[in-house]
Amino acid sequence: MTDDLEVQALAILDSLTNTPFEQCIPITRSFKNVTANASIYAVRHRELGLLYVGKTRYSRERFRDGHKAFLWSWLDHYDSDDVRLLLYPLDFIQLQTLSSSLEALSLLLQSHLTTPGILRGTNANSQQPPHPQGKATNTSVRLPQK
Amino acid sequence: MILAALPEHIQRALLAHAQETQYPLEMVLEMAIAGFLDAEAITFTDCRPEYT
User: Fold this and answer.
1) What pairing do the DSSP bridges indicate for beta strands A39-45 and A25-26?
2) pTM of model > 0.90
3) Which chain B residues are closer than 8 Å to A99 by Cβ?
């Protein structure tokens, strides 16, 4: 990964982790106001921070019929008001610039997700450390049941 | 052009998507095909089709 790309990836990570929770998109059935653009997105918990990071070519359609991160949140008994979506939409130029490196970028984001400092950094008020059994996959990071 | 070979309602949907996202139609078609071959892919570049 080039330096420029890494800088861009870190800017995306910063946006996904540090945007105030109140500015994230509440969960609805239709997500009809969500952009149609491709995006890198995060599913966030009000207290626990990042639950999931992924990429999609068609954001609105991706969430319209549910998403496994929402199912996991339900299984873990999270209050639906405490789980929100945050998108980093990609314009055509970004799509062209990043498309050859989306996999690398995705892995870089996930490597940061598994870093305790980053997870703590998602919520300065939270005293809860990352769960030691939290695990990363190629496409997502799921936090364990609270 | 691939678009002309598609049913009218599919053409309309693809054109509307291109207009809303401000992506060129060619990119919208690329994303549609890439997504069919690999659900995780966004473009041909990150597309890893099962059949290679």
Assistant:
1) unpaired
2) no
3) 42-43, 45-46
